[in-house]
Task: inverse folding
């Protein structure tokens, strides 16, 4: 089952549309391996590269994918459990600016992404259809748990595409 446009804020569509799989667990698994393979293939001399003044480095982009995975999976957990409180947004630039990546390498980023995504695959595997369709309110609008799972994949894929186009 794929999310419908009515299931999420319009902004999510550009990410969800990047994912071809017809169920969220398959999407999470396929995207998981794609991202890990990509990180492994990044030339090490490119990790601290940024393509223009004020743009993030490759390490910062990968770290952003991981931060977003954590934050949105937390939202999915709350919505799946019926939490109706509106959740606040986050400033991705603030997070990037305050992430100390000095001693971080590609293997550490891959291991961290692997750990977070494996946790999310297990979480989504145990959800019922009712839980997947349960909606919650974010600062930007209402979305359901299923859409958040697809967003995780599409968001990661979007940033990998950007790295390929502008950094490598």
Result:
């Amino acid at each position: 089952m794929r999310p419908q446009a009515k299931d999420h804020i319009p902004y999510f569509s550009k990410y969800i549309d990047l994912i071809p799989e017809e169920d969220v667990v398959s999407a999470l698994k396929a995207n998981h391996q794609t991202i890990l393979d990509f990180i492994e293939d990044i030339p090490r001399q490119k990790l601290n590269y940024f393509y223009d003044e004020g743009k993030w480095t490759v390490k910062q982009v990968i770290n952003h994918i991981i931060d977003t995975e954590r934050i949105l999976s937390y939202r999915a957990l709350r919505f799946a459990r019926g939490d109706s409180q509106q959740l606040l947004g986050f400033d991705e630039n603030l997070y990037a600016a305050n992430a100390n990546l000095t001693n971080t390498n590609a293997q550490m980023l891959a291991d961290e992404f692997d750990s977070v995504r494996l946790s999310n695959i297990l979480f989504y595997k145990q959800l019922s259809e009712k839980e997947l369709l349960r909606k919650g309110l974010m600062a930007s609008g209402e979305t359901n748990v299923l859409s958040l799972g697809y967003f995780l994949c599409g968001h990661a894929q979007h940033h990998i595409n950007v790295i390929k186009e502008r950094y490598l």
